[in-house]
Amino acid sequence: MNKATRQAVIAGNWKMNKTRPEAKALIEEMIPLVKDADCGVIICVPYTNLETAIAATKGTNIKVGAENCHWAKSGAFTAEVSADMLKEVGVEYVIIGHSERRQYFGETDVTVNQRVRAALDAGLKVILCVGELLNEREQGITEEICSMQTKIALAGVSKEEMKDIIIAYEPVWAIGTGKTATADQADEVCGAIRGVIAKLYDDATAQATTIQYGGSMNAKNADELLGKVNVDGGLIGGASLKAPDFAAIIAAASK
Ligand SMILES: O=C[C@H](O)COP(=O)(O)O
Q: Superkingdom of the source (predicted)?
């Protein structure tokens, strides 16, 4: 399997945006624009929008994901949501390890791994985020950081379970800043992550794993980024909040 046979996946990460009526309107605008996509289409939305998004996307090619889940099945964890709760609502995907969770909410590689485990056990598919800080890139340790984050997050994940894992390479310095990694930088790190998967599992698993780029991807730069051999799609923040922009990225991934 190679780039030609791996399915590109474009996932929107709405972050903390959209009330329920706004979510419904955005999805309704999006549906006709993305219905002919030749790639996977996912929208990851705030917890309060999950039921709205699931109802609004029923019978369409848009899958719904959450933006995080807790590692425990239940218990005294105020404000957290379990993977089983998401599954029961009808969620298919969950983002885990987003840099904003790591940066602002104390998420560590170990808790990312625990959340990945809980998600897989509940039958959810995971979009696992890894990526370096600006000072780590400047120190020349980008691949080391991404490799370490990937290895720890996937500890205890079997080869068979890798079919339910998408990896999103998101350089932290490129998120929401308008600074995009160059297509070559994105390709290089996505390729290095693929190398880690090959070492952890085998080459076939590495070649079959979808590895996205995320960080200021938009309608203008999507073509170049998605044209790279190791970039199998995108995790899109800001541009996923505007239906025409999100649709343009999906069109670029469908070429
Ligand atoms: O999860 C998405 C990423 O954080 C990228 O966000 P952005 O496209 O707004 O830079």
A: Bacteria
Closest to 18 measured CA to CA, from 63, 67, 60, 58: 67
- Active-site annotation holds for 170: yes
Alpha helices (H) along the chain: 20-34, 50-57, 83-89, 99-104, 109-121, 134-138, 142-153, 183-200, 203-208, 222-226, 243-253
Residue 176: pLDDT over 90: no
Residue whose CB lies within 8 A of the most ligand 1 atoms, among 14, 175, 242, for a mutation test: 175
Nearest CA to ligand 1 atom 3: 237
How confident is the model over 128-175, as pLDDT tens digits? 999 999 999 999 999 999 999 999 999 999 999 999 999 999 999 999
Q: Which of 118, 210, 206, 200 is nearest to 152 (CA)?
A: 200
Q: Whole-angstrom Cα distance, residue 40 to residue 175?
A: 22
The residues spanned by each domain of the chain are 9-253
State whether the beta carbon of 171 lies less than 6 angstroms from ligand 1: no
Are 68 and 52 within 8 A, CB to CB?
no
